Amino acid sequence: MEPTMKKLKVVGNGEAFTSSLCNTSFRLDLGGSAILIDCGYQVPPKLWEEEDHTDIDLILLTHFHADHSFGVVPLLVRYLEEKRTKPLNIWGPKGVESFVTKILNLGYPGVSKYFKYQIEFSEFEEIDEKHFGEVQIRSAPTVHSIPNLTYRLDFNGSSFSVSGDGKLKPEAMALVSGVGIHFQETYELLDEIPSHCSFEEVLQMHNAGTMRSIGITHIARHAVEPLTTLHNKLTMENKIDGNLFLTYPGQSFEF
Ligand SMILES: [Zn+2]
Ligand SMILES: [Zn+2]
Fold first, then answer.
1. 168 Ramachandran zone, left/alpha/beta (phi>0; psi -120 to 50)
2. How do beta strands 149-155 and 25-29 pair?
3. Which of 10, 48, 96, 127 makes an SS bond possible with 251, Cβ 3.0 to 4.6 Å?
4. Is residue 174 part of a domain?
């Protein structure tokens, strides 16, 4: 049997506090089922624009900052209203179950007793590997202000990875080596904040050719304009090629 075509969509590519962009989030469609990677507070309305938000069977969280996780609460409660019965998997770093249970109970105390669907939690160690159907998911840590995991997803000979927030540690660099597309949090232009990645570092990754292609996400609101201008200038001067690209909401990739 032919493997089903997979479609990856950039749901949002923004940082935590922008007005015009949605928090960085990705959706991988597997055909009747989908994986959502990160779910910040701006994400659920974007998902609800599509009927198929109910296809999501796995929510993968890179870390527990609100711009990557607080959207889980409204998403879960809307599933209750929609009378969801199929199980929902929520996987993430250590403590994912207690974290989600806590924010759900803060938002809507006691609501989970009305859920008609099971939530299956699973924790990733820093270096770990799990399988969701035919998708292999591997993790490695980054340097961020709280524990954050980079995930690499491999399926039918294709692959992509999502950094979450932070600078890639050597283990994460090794994990994303040779990946088809790596989506990297690129908060700022120059390397000035220890817990975030910069365009300066992404340029080095591009020049080293470690990943086949790099998509830039999660740019700080003050850096969007200068970073875009610099990216365009470097492209015009042929100093970088199309394999180092800026992401945009709704952008999609087929595998
Ligand atoms: Zn963060
Ligand atoms: Zn963030």
1. beta
2. unpaired
3. 10
4. yes
Separation of CA 93 and ligand 1 centre (Å) = 13
Task: Tell how far the Cα of 146 is from the centroid of ligand 1, in angstroms.
Answer: 7
Q: Which ligand is nearest to the CA of 12?
A: 2
Distance from the alpha carbon of residue 65 to the mean position of ligand 2, in angstroms: 7
Quick check: 2 pLDDT over 70?
no
Residue 2 lies in a domain: no
Query: Would residue 209 count as lying in a domain?
Result: yes
| pLDDT band at 19; cut points 50, 70, 90 | confident
Residue-wise pLDDT tens digits, 60-114: 999 999 999 999 999 999 999 999 999 999 999 999 999 999 999 999 999 999 9
Count the domains in the chain: 1
Return d(Cα 77, Cα 71) in angstroms, integer. Answer: 10
pLDDT value at position 1? 59
Residue with structure tokens 């089922």? 33
pLDDT tens for each residue of 128-150: 999 999 999 999 999 999 999 99
Length of the chain as a residue count: 255
Query: Which domain CATH number covers 101?
Result: 3.60.15.10
Return residues with CB closer than 5 A to ligand 2 (ion).
67, 165
CA distance 131 to 255: 18
